[in-house]
Amino acid sequence: MKKFVSLFLVLVMVSAVLCGCGDGSKKPGAEWNKGYEQRKLNNEIVVGIAQDLEDSLDPHQSSSAGTREVFFNIYEGLVKPNSAGELIYAVAEDMKLSSDGRTYTFYIREGVRFHNGQSVTAADVVYSIKRCADTSGGAPLVAAFSAIEDVKVVDEMTVDITIKARDLDFLSYLTVAIVPENAADLATKPCGTGPFKYVSRSPQENIIIERFDDYWGKKAELSRVTYKIYENAETLVMALKGGAIDLCAHLTSAQAKQLDEDYFQILEGTMNLVQAVYLNHKAAPFDNEQVRQALCYAIDRQQIMNFVADGHGTAVGSSMYPAFTKYFMPELTDYYKYDPAKAKKLLADAGYPNGFDMTIMVASNNKPHVDTAEVVAQQLRAIGINVTIQQVEWQTWYDEAYKGRNFQATIVGLDASNMTARALLERFTSTHSKNFTNYNNPDYDALFQQAISATDDAAQTAIYKQMQRELTETAANLYIQDLCDLVALREGLTGVEFYPTYVLDLSTVKFTK
Amino acid sequence: MKHAAKKLGLMLLTMLIVSFLAFLAFQIIPGDPTNTLLGSEATPERVAALRAELGLDRPFFVRYFDWITDFVQGDFGKSYSYSMPVADMLSGKLAVTLLLAAISFLLTVIVSIPLGILSADCGGWFDRIVTVLGQVTMAVPPFFIGILLTYLFGITLHWFTPGEFVSPGVDFWASAGYLVFPAAAIALPRIAMTVKMLRSGIMGELNKDYVRTSHSRGNTRRATLYRHVLRNAVVPTVAFLAMTIADIVAGSVVVEQVFAIPGLGRLLLSSISNRDYPVVQAIIVMMAFWVVLVNFVADLINQRLDPRLRLQ
Amino acid sequence: MSERRRNLYLRVGLAITGVITLLAVLGCFWTPYDPSAMNSAEMYASPSLRHLFGTDNFGRDVFSRVMKGVSTTYLISLATVALGAAVGVVVGALTGYFGGVIDDILMRVNDAVTAFPSILLALVFISLLGFGKYNVILALGVAFIPSYARVVRSEFARHREMNYVKSAHLMGATHRRIMFVHILPNTRAVILPTLVIGFNNAVLAEASMSYLGIGVRSPDVSLGYMLSESQSYMSSAPWYVLCTGMTIVLLILGFSLVGEGLQQEGR
């Protein structure tokens, strides 16, 4: 008898353990939707992101595309881009440009409030611009602001910004975030004017934002958004499949394929990045142009797209992506046509008949880049180069490769902080603080100086194109593609708009009734 | 009591050695932290200033002494990559990992002890099935169990939502409910080992003289088992379970990754990758202290269970 | 325990281990396909005669990858055991045989270190040394030294007092000779199972580290690395996860059965 009693007890325990916290009779569908139904009631969603924000939340200090993507919802500049890529007024409601093209007079919009409740005044705008133009710590936070001669308050709601010489791109840089003059600690307590306000952050876990009810423009539809960080590509897919995430951008086609069509709609846009194998020009043998060219011939971009995105994406041949219709040069795309035999020959000519060893560093959280690295490695092995892939955490990548310039080759996508060619091309000038590839080409530097001082739009465009050609001809990097951006959106949600820059606007996302 | 005091002394000594080794390792091998913080192109003045600020210009033993006194007071220094105190970074994560370990340990105990006793008691086919299953379970890495559990209970049956972890501070029961699955992944191999241990302990004990004596005095096999044998057989198992706690901690590092749980393990891994040594050092030393402490407690419990050990 | 049962452990264990070892050895020299060759025409192919274990998201043959992965895991574990055991045996033999103050100190340090799960110890070393295959071997090897040293020490301390050692002494044998010619062979019944268990721990640790992304790196393939890779494709290519996972299970199971068998033989 005792035997049966104890046996029974064990069975109860084991089954209690196996069942976790409930009975085993729930219908999967209902349970799957439980969290979602609750969120729908609260009018909130969870957005999955693959990388944590930077250590400091100061909008002027941030330099990673992932951080900018989130901040787009919290901060605004005097002007901001819309989904067509045009600049629209944001904190300013009007602007006048003096006849010599040097003085911009901005009229601040009435009733724009910061998230702390204060109204935006001219003093805040001047403070924000000056903060980014400040040179006391070396280079200014926004390089283009070194052209600023003077910023001054005209009256409570009017600001004059004077630059040293006419600059066609200058307005685009005024998308820089406007922050309150007396903001105490922007690094930990973001405070802007955007449609969402910052609530809290837990490093490596989440960032929570809420609708800002005093927003000047069309208010956000959702009342609350939680960004959840999944630095591990595997768990990201699990979380999507399990129903923990409602919206997630930047998926590979293989990841998207795992998702159930009944629960997710897959939207396709472009990521608006220049994905490439970026080479460190100070690391041998990439100081040798012939070697770089050989590598360019060894890359089969169509095959990469086939593996990573089912053939989607747009091949690029220089540091410009197609959304910049004005500057993009499709003719550069096939400058180095896939030709392994030629690659081998060039490599031999350069003194490496037997190839060499190289390491590609890639951030492990970014599945598209990791997969691309696998394919690239395989392609380079075909011409005798022994490639090792070094997967590191994103933060490590950022510190080591991007800030420390301590890498040989890396795969990443570089985005544009605003819709100017300068935002993509300036970083390859030899003295630029973000020139992490150490590209050093006096001709290129000279062209850049000509471009920024050009007064005629057509002439400037021509020079920017010349700069792209320069990058391609010197094989600065192994350019691959502008990735296709697959966004998984929960059935029942709508309103995702694709922008020509790397942002995710959440203010238009809403539940369908 | 005297014995306990001696053990306590030994424990403190061990902690001291552990902390010293950890400090030594993190001082010598990684090179100059100013390099990590400022990059290789910093000016000598800035390097010197930072060295002074971090206290690197003082002698080694002075630094160790300062560090360990700060450590026991809960000041673990400042993180390199997140410029916040390490203690603040740890506080939330520690609770998560402790809860995970506790659930895992609880599972191990409540499943393995009855199972081990029954297996020894019933014998026959039941014993055989338990033994075979146990052998196989021991061979499955916890993270593979984790993947299978996620797939089975998370994605197919939807008993829990993978990735939707709530921290225990927000909703304790929801958090614990989620953690049951990773805890099971860690616990399963431990359960198999404990069952085996307990079973063979009981079997060994049953062959001893006093059992025969008890039988000859007319006690049934079962009465002997539950009244005398268990008490003796459980002693090595308690020691084993204590060691299991150390393994559970190690297992949690890996399994947290499978279930996307923001605990100490996740933080440890990213800090290792970021070369954020103050954080790595703090976590490692903390885990070590914990393990040593648990062993000490297990020792004391053993004493109470087995009077013979008190005389040693 | 019956004679038959004991042999069963050893027999089944040897059979499983034999198959896996064969795969591993073969994997060093030959695989049906190039384990890293990609093929866009055969992505996510399910298991068939062409591809025994199917293919992955790059159209790579999973069976070939498993073969390659087993041999990497195998080699790393063997190297780890060799390194750990070599140092551990010497340290354990010296301290156990001579005893004294050094023994006390070393054993206290040893206690401090063994209190610590070896994978955590390996993580510390990795964080200090950097990533990669050879650092994994070094880190795990060092992390496992104390566990061997402890076993060997207690065996040597026991044997030191035995008559055969005393008589060897009287016959004028040197310490070195006594330690390694007389005592060491007599401890094999204890050391051999320890080595086998150590091998298993090494397999598990390597798999965990590679799974966490701090072990081997592409183009090297190990079972743990493959498991983390395949986890994303659980629903479109479940065979990838399952075949890889089951191979690890069999590898560990085989050795633990052999260890079990050896332990019981020794009793």
Give an overview in words.
The complex is a heterotrimer of chains A (513), B (312) and C (267). By secondary structure, chain A is of the alpha+beta class. Chain A folds into 3 domains: 33-52 and 194-269 and 485-511, D-Maltodextrin-Binding Protein, domain 2 (3-Layer(aba) Sandwich), CATH 3.40.190; 75-175, Dipeptide-binding Protein, Domain 1 (Dipeptide-binding Protein, domain 1, Alpha-Beta Complex); 274-482, Roll (Dipeptide-binding Protein, domain 3). Helix content of chain A is 31%, strand content 22%. Chain A contains 15 helices and 21 strands. In chain A, strands 8-9-10-1-11-19-12 form a 7-stranded mixed sheet. A 6-stranded mixed sheet of chain A has the order 14-18-13-17-15-16, with helices on both faces. In chain A, helix 8 runs antiparallel to helix 10 (340-349) and helix 14 runs antiparallel to helix 15 (457-473). The longest helix of chain A is centred in the N-terminal third of the chain and has 18 residues, at 2-19. Residues 1-28 of chain A have low confidence and may be disordered. Chain B has 312 residues and is mainly α. Chain B has 2 domains: 2-72, no CATH class; 91-206 and 232-310, MetI-like (MetI-like fold, Orthogonal Bundle). Chain B is 80% helix and 0% strand. Chain B has helices spanning 2-28, 33-38, 44-54, 60-72, 86-122, 124-138, 142-156, 172-206, 209-216, 221-258, 264-274, 277-305, 308-311. In chain B, helix 5 crosses helix 8 (172-206), helix 7 crosses helix 10 (221-258) and helix 11 packs antiparallel against helix 12 (277-305). The model of chain B has no long low-confidence stretch (mean pLDDT 82). Chain C has a domain at 76-253: MetI-like fold (Orthogonal Bundle), CATH 1.10.3720. Chain C contains 10 helices and no strands. Chain C has helices spanning 3-29, 62-98, 100-114, 118-129, 133-160, 163-170, 175-186, 188-211, 223-231, 238-266. Chain C is elongated, with a radius of gyration of 22 Å. The termini of chain C are close together. The mean pLDDT of chain C is 86. Chain B binds chain C through residues 13-14, 17-18, 21-22, 25-26, 29-30, 135-136, 138-141, 143-144, 147-148, 151, 155, 246-247, 249-250, 253-254, 257-258, 268-269, 271-273, 275, 277, 280, 284, 287-288, 291-292, 295, and chain C through 108-109, 111-113, 115-120, 123-124, 126-129, 204, 207-208, 211-212, 214, 227, 231, 234-235, 241, 245, 248-250, 252-253, 256-257, 260.
